[in-house]
Amino acid sequence: MTEINSVTTLTREGDVDVITLNSPPVNALSANVRDGLLEGFKAAAASESKAIVLICDGRTFIAGADISEFGAPGKPSASLPDVQNMMENSPKPVIAAIHGTALGGGLEVALCAHYRVAVPSAKLGLPEVALGLLPGAGGTQRLPRVVGVENALEMMTSGRHVPAKEAASLGLVDELVEEGKLKEGALAFANKCVAENKPLVKISENNTKLEAAKGKPEIFADFRKKNARKFRGFDAPEANIKCIEAAVNSASFDEGLAVERKLFMGLMTGSQSAAQRYYFFAERTAAKIPDVPDDTPLREIKKVGVLGAGTMGGGISMNFVNVGIPVTIVELKQDALDRGLATIRKNYERSRGADPAVTEKRMSLLTGSLDMNDFADCDLIIEAVFERMDIKKDVFTKLDAICKPGAILASNTSYLNIDEIASVTKRPQDVIGLHFFSPANVMKLLEVIRGEKTAKDVIATSMKLAKKIGKIAALAGVCPGFIGNRMLSQRQREAQKLIMEGAMPWDVDRVLYDFGFPMGPFAMSDLAGLDIGWVKENSKGETLRDVLCEADRRGQKTGAGYYDYDENRNAKPSEFTENAINAFIAKTGKNPRKISDEEILERCIFPMINEGVKILEEGKAIRASDIDVVWVNGYGWPVYRGGPMFYGDLIGGPAKVLEKMKEFQATMGDDFKPAALLEKLAAEGKKFGDLKG
Ligand code: T1G
Ligand code: NAD
Predict the structure, then answer these.
(1) What is the residue with the minimal CA distance to atom 17 of ligand 1?
(2) CB 550, CB 537: distance < 8 Å
(3) Which of 170, 190, 206, 615 has the fewest other C-beta atoms within 10 Å?
């Protein structure tokens, strides 16, 4: 065995040279790895061997370029194209042996091998679009030459990790080898190449699949049209599409490569990719709790209980049965239980690609009950009953008496004080908030609420469990509304004030929609229903919501709310609402004023950022990036703007936000009172991103 460098070795197995990478955690194409590959292939090319296998140790094949190197000054090192040219032009067959994930630059390297073998559990993809980028090492030109233009469009704009079996059917993998026997399988394949003198397949020279798309611009036009809504606001998807168009329309591979290079650099130097790359690491950092070591022993969660089968209880239960964990769901009354279980079944049956056998399997893991004593053998119980402290305290008192020692008692409360709930139990150390978002089986975010006495192993267990059920967890402290809803209240307040000063609901919604939110606050209210918590008997037309609800304008469900809705639920501005608003303004004796889009945006966003600073100031969030994870995953903040705190730095940092807050405070009062920490950050010339906990 020859040690090429600290992450690369070269060994000879019979007639085959084996280049092995070992650069944890994911063999990313760091400078060291690129150097090792280039020197490894040089040595193998010069040796007596008849074939070369590239394989990786650790949990995965190369998972892409090293994202942490982007934008950072690098040491002189081999370039990826140098490595790739060495591979593709090798006089001996080069076989890439794939396990785990061959992603981004990793797949682009594998596409320069003459052949690829993989174990069935492997996944392959070009997910650069998720980083606001495109495959910048020839992937945009080689992928369509292998899988065809339509498949390349889908793979590169979705960033999907394609299972090896499907990849083989697409021609991306030449042979599936036995699970756990990758090296043996790759060596056998390499020897077969030699024995059968198989051709050295250079993908860059095979234009067959491109020919099929030549002179058919409709392929691209249709694809753009079909995905316009999904790609709205993002720069990267269009750039990916343009590269594939270039692959089809360019006179040569190199000409297409030049288009790829130009578009790649355009994205790489843009703010969207900077935001999405920041966000990649923010999501992974959120899982780390400074005072809860990674090796904290976890409590075993083999059986879960859910109390309340309403809007949230049902969705929460689905997350656990989806990963094979049985759930006992307890309701007050049979009809509520039946309704809850029926909704779960309907959600499964209606989901895309629903498999009846899978639905039955999941439903079989669900046990309905009207008796809380059935929680006695559960390891985790999540309460999702009405949002009233008295009811929460009542059920936690009962859970304390019923549940076994060591069981985790969790509340899905949106706003209430977890410490107060825990105080009615003799085991506050076992109490935690697990705040799911509606629909709970779909929304990725889970706010994990740490109580004053919550034990570290309860926190560690909850954070790891979140990953297991496919959620992105962020830790929050106990305060009204935790991180997300607390900041949301700032935006909602300003939105309501703005429409009482001259802006219309559709103006506010348009500004936030154009900013990148999927929906503005008023359209969102119409979707959720304006009558949540509204009591007809107590309504006296004192607020706009009263007036709308009294007129049976309760939102989409009644065909009217802030907006009027047609039979297809398309919204249009409403004269009724406009008149109602002007009537309210007239009562104040003030005249409505023209409010700029800029003011609408700043008044909705800056108080949120200021509230984020207060949350960090109070230690209710560990770091600024956790706040961004909450907003991107739970509230539709456009990921290409990084999150409220990242965005705050993008538009000028604490100094800029402070300046605007003070400007608004001068005319509109203490709703805009800057946080003390905001003043401090601005004075010290610091960034929100410096609040790293
Ligand atoms: N670069 C640097 N670090 C990376 C990394 C990468 N590409 N991928 C993962 N990590 C780190 C991550 O931060 C974490 O660190 C640890 O590895 C485990 O990751 C030229 C331009 C591979 C599916 O987009 O999707 O190639 O927190 O917790 O859930 O065209 O990581 O432990 O310190 O996510 O098992 C394209 C990104 C790059 C793939 C594994 N590649 N990675 O998931 O573990 S751009 C990607 C992933 C590119 C070229 C272009 C996932 C994973 P820490 P993890 P996981
Ligand atoms: P919901 O009214 O849809 O469902 C509550 C269910 O709890 C009802 O079916 C009710 O019968 C049942 N219930 C009430 N008391 C009970 C008891 N003592 N024992 C057993 N079952 C009982 O409410 P929801 O929207 O699902 O909200 C539940 C909790 O989740 C609340 O704390 C809420 O704040 C929180 N939450 C709601 C949302 C949301 O968007 N709806 C999002 C996050 C969190």
Answers:
(1) 25
(2) no
(3) 206
- Å from CA of 314 to ligand 2 middle: 10
Contact between 379 and 303 under an 8 Å Cβ cutoff? The reply is yes
Distance, CA of 656 to CA of 693 (rounded, Å): 22
Among 272, 212, 205, which Cα is nearest to 237's? Answer: 272
Q: Which of 3, 13, 69, 108 is catalytic?
A: 108
Annotation says 128 is catalytic:
yes
* Res 693 pLDDT > 80: no
Q: What is the DSSP letter of 448?
A: E
DSSP lists the bridge partners of residue 330 as 307, 369
450 alpha carbon, distance to own chain's centre: 22
Q: What's the confidence (pLDDT) of residue 401?
A: 98
Flag the least confident range among 245-259, 521-535, 570-584: 521-535
Q: In this model, does residue 186 exceed pLDDT 80?
A: yes
From the CA of 447, the nearest ligand is 2
What per-residue confidence (pLDDT) applies to 535? 87
- Cβ-in-10-Å burial (0-12, 13-18, 19+) of 537 comes to exposed
Nearest to 654 by CA among 693, 680, 692, 631: 680
228 C-alpha to ligand 1 centroid (Å): 28
What is the best residue among 414, 418, 483 to mutate for testing ligand 2's pocket, by most ligand atoms within 8 Å of CB? 414
Ligand 1 neighbourhood includes 105 CB (under 6 angstroms): yes
Active site residue 218: no
Q: Give the span between the Cα atoms of 78 and 81, in whole angstroms.
A: 9
Q: What integer pLDDT is reported at residue 8 of this predicted model?
A: 98
Q: For the chain, first and last CA: distance in Å?
A: 45
pLDDT at 76: 85
Query: CA nearest 180: which of 124, 123, 121, 125?
Result: 121
Per-residue pLDDT tens for 106-131?
Answer: 999 999 999 999 999 999 999 999 99
Q: Which of 39, 88, 128, 260 is catalytic?
A: 128
Q: Whose CA is nearest to atom 31 of ligand 2?
A: 387
pLDDT band of residue 160 (cuts 50, 70, 90) is: very high
Cβ contacts of 489 within 8 Å, gap of 6 or more: 481, 611
Q: Which residues of 590-614 are buried (b: 16+ CB within 10 A; e: fewer)?
A: eebeebeeebbebbbbbbbbbbbbb
- Ligand 2 pocket: which of 319, 385, 441, 532 to mutate (most atoms within 8 A of CB): 385
Average pLDDT over residues 11-16: 98
Which comes out higher in pLDDT, residue 75 or 523? 523
Nearest by Cα to 563 from 602, 522, 516, 510: 522
**Is the CA virtual torsion 234, 236, 237, 241 positive or negative?**
positive
Task: Return the percentage of the chain with pLDDT > 70, whole number.
Answer: 100
Coil, helix or strand at residue 252: coil
Q: Give CA–CA dist 99/179, Å, rounded.
A: 9
Please tell me if the CB atom of residue 391 comes closer than 6 angstroms to any atom of ligand 2: yes
Gap from CA of 74 to ligand 1 centroid (Å): 19
Q: How far is the CA of 394 from the centre of ligand 2 (A)?
A: 14
Ligand nearest to the CA of 635: 2
- For the CA of 268, the closest atom of ligand 1 is 21
| Strand ranges, E, within 341-454 | 366-369, 380-383, 408-411, 431-436, 445-450
Ligand sitting nearest the alpha carbon of 25 = 1
| Alpha-carbon dihedral 233, 239, 240, 246, rounded to 10 degrees | 150
Among protein residues, the one with the nearest Cα to ligand 1's atom 53 is 284
**Cβ atoms of residues 447 and 630 within 8 Å:** yes
